[in-house]
Amino acid sequence: MNVIFFTHPTNHHQTGRASIEESNRRAAKSKNEDGKPIRLQSKILAISEDPFNPGAVYVAESAGSVRKVALETGETLALYRGPTAPLTSVAFSPDGKLLFAGCWDKTVWSWDVQSRQQRQKYEGHADFVKTVTSVRVNGRDVLVSGGADSKLIVFDIKSGEKLHVFKDHLRGIQDIRIDPVSIQEGSSKVEIFSAGSDREIRQFSIALDTAKAGNALIAHDTSVYKLFFDEDGDLWTASADKFAKCLTRDSGWKPNLALEHPDFVRDVVVYDQGGWVVTACRDEEIRVWNKATGQLFHTYSGHFEEVTGLALIGSTVVSVSIDATIRQWSVRPADVQEAKEEMQNKKPQEEQPKQESMLTEEEERELAELMGEDDSTIARSLTTSSMADKSREEPGAAEARPKLVNRLHESRSPYVRGHMHNPVAWQLWDSQSIALAKKYNQLIFVSIGYSACHWCHVMEKESFMSSEVANILNESFIPIKVDREERPDIDDVYMNYVQATTGSGGWPLNVFLTPDLEPVFGGTYWPGPQSSSPTQFGPDGPIGFVDILEKLRDVWQTQQARCLDSAKEITRQLREFAEEGTHAQPEGKGAEDLEVELLEEAFQHFASRYDPVHGGFGRAPKFPTAANLSFLLRLGMYPSTVSDIVGQDECARATTMAVTTLLKIARGGIRDHIGNGFARYSVTPEWLLPHFEKMLYDQAQLLEAYVDAFRVTHEPELLGAVYDIVSYLTSSRIQAPSGGFHSSEDADSLPTPNDTEKREGAFYVWTMKEFKQVLGTRDAGVCARHWGVLSDGNIAPENDPHDELIDQNVLSIQVTPSKLAKEFGLSDEEVIKTIKSGKQKLREYREKTRGLPDLDDKIIVAWNGLAIGALAKASVLLDEIDQAKAQQCRDSAQRAVGFIQQNLFEPSTGRLWRIYRDGSRGDTPGFADDYAYLTSGLIALYEATFDDSHLQFAEQLQKHLNENFLAPGPEPNTAAGYYTTSSTPIQGVPGPLLRLKGGTDSATPSVNGVIARNLMRLSALLEDDKYKTLARQTCNTFSVEMLQHPFLFVNLLDAIVGLEMGIRNITGVVAGQAASGKDAVIRRTRAEAGLAASTSTATMAVVDARGESWIKGRNVLYRDLKAGTPPKDFLLVCEAGSCKTMDL
């Protein structure tokens, strides 16, 4: 069963190019027939050869079955059922009569091979069983299993008795192999080798009545996934350190050959007759190496997801993968040579020009088909499945439609209203517009964007201001404009469609829909008739928006029945994905099985993509993605138990990666060094050239990350960034006088108030001439060196395709004040004074002479919740440094809460409204992110102020979430996470096609991740286990995907740590009479919580025992608290089901 992760790629067509290219590659590769693929329905996690039939294999499926498959025909010969959780490994008894499978449910299942009847289950593990094997010892058959609990258990197969239990590994066991040299008829003991996530390989001598563990073998830097003995008795290993190695027996298991790979090595087998070593890598490839020389000879390519296992059957290697296919590769030397020559002789694909355009290769290919002459080609491009080739009567012609008029003046959205003077007769997303489409039988064209989106403005200028485009849209379509920030539910569904069908995504998002709102065709930016850069699109010219409109118009008129069939089929598939997109396990089989070890796997992912020179992860464009930075910082903030599991060195490195990245960002051009705040992302790897839009949600998440980073390191530059973001958030431009926070500032602006043409970044860039004009010669020299300003500009030509930034400079810190002092013969104090003075002068000049970027002054509840939480967290830090600034943070956060309560909250129903603008609220009820982010912010504000009203409001919002957004679980009275939309539809407005669940973190935090963390904190603060149960079930909803891609779920991982380690709730009890007593109690409470307060392993409360309060009545532990005689303050520390008091 597959899953679509509903993640937003980024803010415009080029954002997340690496992930877009990856999606394109995978979609194309999935169609290949290399390796004679046998396609199954479930992800395959392990493979074993059939001990009696070389023409068959047994595979372990994530659906919980073992399947016997014929290699020649692909036929399923037998199916072994029973488990409801995924199976990780397959093995047979020594006589081949019993089949074993390790399972996530912590047991080993067994079946009679012939009858397929279940036999006994073998129990003893406290976590997943990851590997199983069997062997005969002194005439007795034993089963050996290894688990994520780090246990190796030896069972008597017949009785099920545990003969031996070892726990020598520090972390989970990944694989077990029997040393073939030790297996002799009637031998009294055998040697077993195990591979662990702790990078150790261990050897065990096993007899029936005795067993001995040997010393650890260290051959790799991190997890060892698989082991394999060759015919010489040497041991081959596959590791996450990207190496496969040969450990030779004669040398005492020292490595004598290392095969380097580009990614984790998942499995290794050796075909001695051909002299080959064959490896499976996480990059989906099967590599064939010369065993004697270690040289790579050939690469087999076919799988389009990670390969999970290999089996050597005669002269064939059989591979299995998460892509649910079984593939076969001949390793006969002649066949490998032939495959290599065939690959080398393939005519190279003509290299396409490097795509500076906004179209992915998949879009180009799909549109190339769309533009063809043949109607059958057109039809094929509009469907995802084959259609019967028979003509059907098209629907009757619709009656003539009256002329449309632009209705966008009715909207409150600044983005939507910005298009109300377009010649396009834009309609709103409402019942009136959909009724028009149905009545007159026309396709709907939906264009989705947001105010700060640069490429949305480009498409408006090129297409939506064009009379040619307007004429087609107004006559042949119902054009609708949507603000994605106002209606994320609509955006999510159609973004999912476009990503699934083209492999790309971003904004503007443009989709053609049937009158029933089912998608027909979509994409992102398409160049219009007024495009200024047609040469970007290749020698044959661009595929233009007008071409697309004309072809879709013609297809709808001539192939309407096929369009409708296609749209319904696509919608059916999307609905199935939405319904089956999570693999919830029954109660008790999910979140408790999600191990803390997943933290290390997520860490390894980020470590493998880390840029040690510039910070950040992967190639340009680079996004801060604060959720990931916060995850890395939390690894060093958890209790020591976590670092014992993940590794102290790993946790230290995680902190270094996060802090280095945050410092590079703070020094880079992505930061507005003159006016505060951070841009959305950087086009260049060194964080120099941003796309200049500033988003409220980015400021809030970065503020939290900088606060945590400073707490860990006490690095002054990080504190400077904290002050910077606080200043930006509390400025009059971002925080409205009423208290709410505005959404974003545009990337584009007028270079001067007299200009009529906006330019991206015009407000933020500088020339050397301006520096000298504003600052004077000496100060300009100092400031120019400090911020990297050059006479001919600091933007490379390849990053300025439109020549808009010639001689311009983006400011970034290049030289420190101490170095400048030496260069200019000044004191450090003089340099710092010059830079501060220069910053103020440049700011005044900028605001006086340049047009301000447009402000999207919508107040969105969700993003306000993020800002409230970040300011609350900053106030706790600043209490120790600058109490006036701390109070400013608290006041700002509390004003925002008051604004929301007064204007966007219905106390009688507990319902939120999402948007406020221009003096009144909008008509869109809150989505799950509004409740989740605001609840999180309120909990943080409670821990900053210990004002019960914030916690009470938070619980009220959580209750509304539970009543209106919670998905039912697989068993009665269980839950399966939270939908993004309420079960109550919006009156008078068409809802989304699908109700989706968000589990992954991206530009904004995972909604279900934030909810799970909120539930954990509420459970501890209110001593209410039902919230903890809901948190566990929410994590369980995404368990299968988290185990495969833990790095996508960093907020859910934090909740899992809280579930596994428990939460320590520190309550300061005020009972004494001293006037300063409460302040002292708060300080002591925070000190006791320490760094863990930023994680799901610690919460803080303060209770006044001298009177009544809401929290005293709500939390059963507080109800009987009294001042005592004599009255004195104390701490109440509760963890692991018990509480103790501590004197101050």
Automatic annotation (TrEMBL):
Keywords: Repeat, WD repeat. This is Spermatogenesis-associated protein 20-like TRX domain-containing protein. SUPFAM superfamilies: Six-hairpin glycosidases (SSF48208), Thioredoxin-like (SSF52833), WD40 repeat-like (SSF50978). One of its GO terms (molecular function) is catalytic activity. Residues 359-376 have a biased composition (Acidic residues). It comes from Talaromyces islandicus. It comes from the Eukaryota. GO terms for biological process: carbohydrate metabolic process. The keyword Repeat applies. Residues 19-34, 337-354 have a biased composition (Basic and acidic residues). Residues 406-574 form the Spermatogenesis-associated protein 20-like TRX domain. Residues 9-34, 337-403, 737-756 are annotated as: Disordered. Gene3D superfamilies: 1.50.10.10, Glutaredoxin (3.40.30.10), YVTN repeat-like/Quinoprotein amine dehydrogenase (2.130.10.10). Pfam families: Thioredox_DsbH, WD40. PANTHER family: SPERMATOGENESIS-ASSOCIATED PROTEIN 20. Residues 378-388 have a biased composition (Polar residues). WD repeats lie at residues 80-121, 258-299.
